[in-house]
Amino acid sequence: GCSCRLAPSILNADLSNLAVECQNLVDAGSDYLHLDVMDGHFVPNLTFGHPVVKCLRPKLPGVFFEMHMMVSDPEKWIEGMADAGANMYTFHYEATKDPAACIRKIREAGMKAGMGINPPTDVEVVLPYIDLLDCVLVMTINPGFGGQKFMAECLPKIQFLREKFINLDIGVDGGVGPSTIQECADAGANLIVSGSALIQHKNRKQCIADMRSIVDQ
Ligand code: DX5
Ligand code: ZN
Predict the structure, then answer these.
(1) Record-annotated residues binding substrate (predicted)?
(2) Average pLDDT of 35-48?
(3) pLDDT at 20
(4) Which atom of ligand 1 is nearest to the CA of 150?
(5) How far is the CA of 9 from the centre of ligand 2 (A)?
(6) pLDDT, tens only, 113-172
(7) Measured between alpha carbons, how far is 121 from 94 in angstroms, rounded to an integer?
(8) Is pLDDT at 1 greater than 80 in this prediction?
(9) Does residue 176 line the site of ligand 1, with CB under 6 A?
């Protein structure tokens, strides 16, 4: 088994009760929180931005916030998110003309840098940036909505990266839950995002424990 870290995506939680939901997921055993930001342009949906993150930060001191930035022009929100207390900024390869500059700016702002790739994007595009990145996030759905079907055909991208880079943090996001986590971990993912399968589970603590026991075998 791997030493996987589990991160809930709060997208399908009660967003009117965001701080309570986040605390509940931390208490249930999450390693960190995956916060989905959507701009209605890069993806056909809207969520929230750095003003909300800034209000959330003091309520969850010490909790690691990974911002999953499903936005066009991701350079735009780097300073705002750093100032709001975000720990990691994951932008999309498809969303910027200059990923290297984006990564540099994220680091200068004091955050960890992640880069996501959508299902249609070839995995090779990340190779020039590996040394600059803290994490590659492999999407196993087309981003925009929770609760979509897991796309197992994206797993070879994770395998490809894991074979080349033993120590790289590789995230997986989209349709991951107790029934799909095994194949993600087997492929080599170590940062596991889980949305609706965890949020809608009647016992979140049990769900996290179940997922952990599957990958720790
Ligand atoms: C979707 C988001 C995901 C999403 C995952 O665009 O990036 O983080 O919330 O939700 P599930 O696990 O339901 O696919
Ligand atoms: Zn996400």
Answers:
(1) 9, 68, 144-147, 175, 195-196
(2) 98
(3) 98
(4) 14
(5) 6
(6) 999 999 999 999 999 999 999 999 999 999 999 999 999 999 999 999 999 999 999 999
(7) 8
(8) no
(9) yes
Catalytic residues: 36, 173
Question: Is 194 near ligand 1, meaning CB less than 6 Å away?
Answer: yes
Ligand nearest to the CA of 148: 1
Tokens at residue 94, please?
Answer: 């498809």
What pLDDT is attached to residue 217? 80
Provide the 10 A C-beta neighbour count for residue 97. Answer: 8
DSSP states of 194-215: E-HHHHTSS-HHHHHHHHHHHH
Ligand 1 centroid distance, CA of 34 (Å): 9
Among residues 181, 169, 211, 171, which one has the least CA distance to residue 28? Answer: 211
Q: State whether the beta carbon of 195 lies less than 6 angstroms from ligand 1.
A: yes
Best residue among 33, 141, 192 to mutate for probing ligand 1's pocket (most ligand atoms within 8 Å of CB) is: 141
CB 140 within 8 A of CB 176: yes
Give the global pTM.
Answer: 0.98
Determine whether the shortest distance from the Cβ of 96 to ligand 1 is under 6 A.
no
Tokens describing residue 124 = 């090779």
The whole-number pLDDT of residue 2 equals 64
